[in-house]
Description:
Helices cover about 35% and strands about 20% of the residues. It has about 425 residues and is an alpha/beta fold. It has 2 domains: about 10-185 and about 360-375, NAD(P)-binding Rossmann-like Domain (Rossmann fold); about 185-350 and about 385-405, Dihydrodipicolinate Reductase, domain 2 (2-Layer Sandwich). The strands form 2 sheets. It has a 9-stranded mixed sheet. Strand 1, helix 3 (about 55-65) and strand 2 (about 70-75) form a beta-alpha-beta unit. Helix 7 (about 160-175) runs antiparallel to helix 14. It starts with 11 loop residues before the first helix and ends in a 30-residue tail after the last helix.
Amino acid sequence: MTSxxxxxxxxxxxxxxxxxxxxxxxxxxxxxxxxGVHIAGDDVLKIGLxxxxxxGTGAATQALMADGQVKLVAxxxxxxxxxxxxxxSLKKIEGLQSNxxxxxxxxxxxxxxxxxxxxxxxxxxxxxxxxxxxxMHLQAAVAAGKxxxxxxxxxxxxxxxxxxxxSCEEAKKKNLAVVSGLCLRYHDPYREAVHRIQEGEIGxxxxxxxxxxxxxIWVKPRQPDWSDMHWQMQNWYYFTWLSGDxxxxxxxxNLDLCAWAMGDQYPVKAIGMGGREVRKGQExxxxxDHHSVVYEYANGARLIxxxxxxxxxxxDISVNVLGSKGTAILTERRNGVRIKAERDWSYSGEERNxxxxxxxxxxxxxxxxxxxxxxxxMAKSTLLAIMGRMATYSGQEITWDMAWNCREDLSPPxxxxxxxxxxxxxxxxxxxYS
Length: 434
């Protein structure tokens, strides 16, 4: 096995996939980017949005509010109506209208829309499509010399994680920013709490409890004129190849918070269980509706991760960090961040909007010529979530090395509208990983 710090070389399928993404290298040749150029304070930064759903619209809003000299100049999505709705919504926001100039010729639609956007003269791209597309879009954006905001998670399989790591290393060489949508790291209360944990206020961390109990989310009923691909893309959350399953797509936030509290150390193995207790119909794709995973660190500490999306059940989204001298309680509830130890502490400072802060710091770092690069933790925390999914899907113990070296490729045969088999639901005890 290769080490944790040396990604396995891509197999032929990944090579073909990445080559197709870059259209035989043509996109990199035609863009002719200039890397690492310092942008003066009065220069306009041109923003391109790739993925125009609700999160993309929100990210574009925050990007436009982050800097006094920015313009949204291009948008891309596979669905024309979604792009149009996003643009309409953005233009209604008071104070932002003058910063939005997206003419029809810069409204790109289709699976190759991101390529067209990258060659349209943008400086910063916001990657907010379903997670499956993050590695290919990030790779293309870095090749094109663009600064990047990349929503979480950054991949749905280990091959995608390694692609992201390679892209982020390339971004460092080109002096390009890569800021992750793992926004809890940009939250003022969590920053102070984690600092205190790492300074030893609760002693040695012995256990972490990460809960994500919530109700169901949207379902878009299949329409008569929708192909298989269209239906799956509309309901991307319910297909593992698109979302990674909800313990990856959503719970990665709390798992990353745990990794951060542990000093960005990651567990050596995991075992768990999960299944489809309520969401059993075809409309729910192939993801589970509950996961429970116990991760173990090299020093014997445990991370207990529980997720559930079932209607009528009690909700709880929180992280508790149990140390030898006390406990840290981390929640997004008002006054919910506190430490119980020899000297109790609770956060009482400013609570800026964490979604805004990540964009504020992204654009400030570009202006300063000192671009932020969140590549390591955004990739490894994504793999942490994938590792848990592997454990629940298979019912087997999964080591970090097994997850790191996993050759599973969740990509569809091709990116086009038409027939696409619905993925099978994993069966613990039957599903295997090599």
